[in-house]
């Protein structure tokens, strides 16, 4: 993947990390993204959760309706990416266990 580390993206991610509640985060993303972009990101995260739980491509496809290309890309990131999906899944699991 192309390196996206620069001053602008660092600032962007710092802003996100410092939002305190899901509602603040939701409002920020509603302002900065289109509805479609939010839906697409949410679907990709759901695909990551399902693949991480051992679901097959066919199960993920039937549950989410995303393309096999999207499933494949998420799977590639899960297995060979920078670890972002894995970290997010682990953090969410920790929150849900509380």
Give the beta-strand count: 0
**How much of the sequence is in beta strands?**
under 5%
Q: What overall form do the CA principal axes indicate?
A: globular
Give the termini separation. 34 Å
Structural class: mainly alpha
Question: TL;DR?
Answer:
With 98 residues, this protein is mostly helical.
Question: How would you portray this structure in words?
Answer:
The protein has 98 residues and is mainly alpha-helical. It has 6 helices and no strands. Helix 3 (35-52) packs antiparallel against helix 4 (57-64) and helix 3 (35-52) crosses helix 5. It is globular, with a radius of gyration of 15 Å.
Write the SSE topology:
Layout: H1 7-17, H2 22-32, H3 35-52, H4 57-64, H5 68-80, H6 84-97
Q: Keyphrases for this structure?
A:
98 residues, mainly alpha, 0% strand, single chain
